[in-house]
Amino acid sequence: MADMTHSTTSSGPRNAEEGAITRFLRATEIDTRLLGMVGALLVIWIGFDLYTGGLFLTPRNLWNLSVQTCEIAVLATGMVLVIVTRNIDLSVGSLLGFVAMVMGVIQAKYLPTYLGFDSSWTWAITLICGLAVGTLLGTFQGVIIAFFNVPSFIVTLGGFLAWRGLAWYVTSGQTVAPLDATFRIMGGGAEGSIGATWSWILGVLACVFIVLGIIGGRHQRKRFNFPRRPLWAEYFLAILGSVLVLGTIYVFNIYYWPVGIAKKYATEHNIPWPETGLDIPYGIAVPVLIAVGIGIVMTFIATRLRFGRYVFAIGGNPEAAELAGIKTRWVTVRIFGLMGLLAAVAAAISTARLNAAANSQGTTYELFTIAAAVIGGTSLAGGSGTIAGAMLGALVMQSLQSGMGLANVDTPIQNVVVGVVLVIAVWLDIVYRSRAK
Questions:
Q1: Of 14, 163, 393, 404, which has the fewest Cβ atoms less than 10 A away?
Q2: Nearest to residue 61, comparing CAs of 240, 241, 282, 350?
């Protein structure tokens, strides 16, 4: 008995520490996999910042990083639902390139003939046409997969080749530029940002919604007699979310327009140019707002709507879902139609950011999108995945690319690193699931 007491006492500090961490995670209900991804992201950021002599963690690079992540992040939100249902989509990059070329041709060649240049309707008609084309092509692939029983790997591999070839055929390989000024707002830049004032307003509203969401969730749990988080955990989550939002906006607001663009703006608006210069903050970029908005909508679809429950039910057990009365084929069609729609949104962001439609757009995007979803915790075996995790995975992927670019790493080596990261992510997923079982 004395030995047992001594053993328990000697190991007490370690068990107490582990118990405190476990109790904290259980009380706050923080996803340990997302927490691990955040830790890995911080390691990547700090490592590259040290290696590049402080170039990585600058407002300029972080702002550019947020804009560059948007396209993959938008695609990854749809890829989560595709992979959850045990499918795959290898065509998203080529589909993005084809839709981008279609939108470029519409606004640069066809609409000026009928509406003239600088029409206020050009951007809207272009965007609607692009979204329609992307949705139709995605739905077409979904119909073949669902009703003709052709594996998604084969169908989307065919789309990977076909849409890229059609993108070249539209203009015989020529780049289409320039594009409509209003349309370019979706790509970011000085004109595609909302400035400091609106950024702070949106930040405060986001904090309010975070608090209201926590309060509403607590009331719902009380209503249905579900376990509730301790009050200190609710306060911690509200403060943490608000600090992250406001801290991000602060970083964006201390990145200012280049002197040349600021002088042009001052001249056009009759603003006297001070001796110390004019500091005009970028604020939040419009493509970042689009990506965040899509992430919120896709999270709502995946977690709150019946369609989302059907998606995860199919991924968990397709036969049981079919026997339960779920129209699995139509769900599959809708998933690929939604993936096509998101590819069109990403095409609009990409085209607006480049101010051109080029045949190289979307090249290798399918690989980065799948990698982002898998790194974000989406299982290739189907049945599990989160939208937030996929978007965080997209940020991890783009951080690696941005950091290696600043470090002057050759492109072939960058591809090697991305490939290694993807394999490690899949291996970690397998280990995680085996331990969970």
A1: 14
A2: 282
CA angle 225/227/228 to nearest 5° reads 110
Rounded to an integer, what distance in angstroms lies between the CA atom of residue 44 and that of residue 42? Answer: 5
CB neighbours (10 Å) of residue 11? 10
Task: Give the pLDDT confidence score for residue 1 in this predicted structure.
Answer: 38
Instruction: Please tell me the predicted confidence (pLDDT) of residue 7.
Output: 39
- Which pLDDT score is estimated for 437? 61
Q: What is the mean pLDDT of each run of 10 residues along the chain (437 residues)?
A: 41 55 86 86 94 94 96 97 96 97 94 85 96 98 97 97 94 89 92 95 97 93 90 94 97 93 87 84 97 97 95 94 95 98 97 93 92 90 91 94 92 86 80 71
Structure tokens at 414: 């960058």
Q: Helix axis angle, 387-406 relative to 365-375, nearest 10°?
A: 120
Structure tokens belonging to residue 73: 């992040």
Distance CA 318, CA 85 (A): 8
Those residues with Cβ within 8 angstroms of residue 434's Cβ, 6 or more apart along the chain or in another chain: none
Q: What is the number of other CB atoms lying within 10 angstroms of the CB of residue 408? A: 7
Q: Write down how long the chain is.
A: 437
What CA–CA distance (Å, rounded) separates 51 from 68? 21
261: amino acid identity, one letter? I
Q: Quick one: pLDDT at residue 436?
A: 65
Query: CB atoms < 10 A from the CB of 64, how many?
Result: 16
3-state secondary structure 162-200: HHHHHHHHHHCCCCECCCCCCHHHHHCCCCCECHHHHHH
pLDDT value of position 3: 42
Residues 6 or more apart whose CB falls under 8 angstroms from that of 297 comprise none
Whole-angstrom distance, CA of residue 147 vs CA of residue 143? 6
Taking Cα atoms as reference points, which of 28, 38, 34, 40 lies closest to residue 386?
Answer: 34
Q: In the beta sheet, which residues pair with residue 285?
A: 193
Q: Does residue 178 have a cis bond before it (omega within 30 degrees)? A: yes
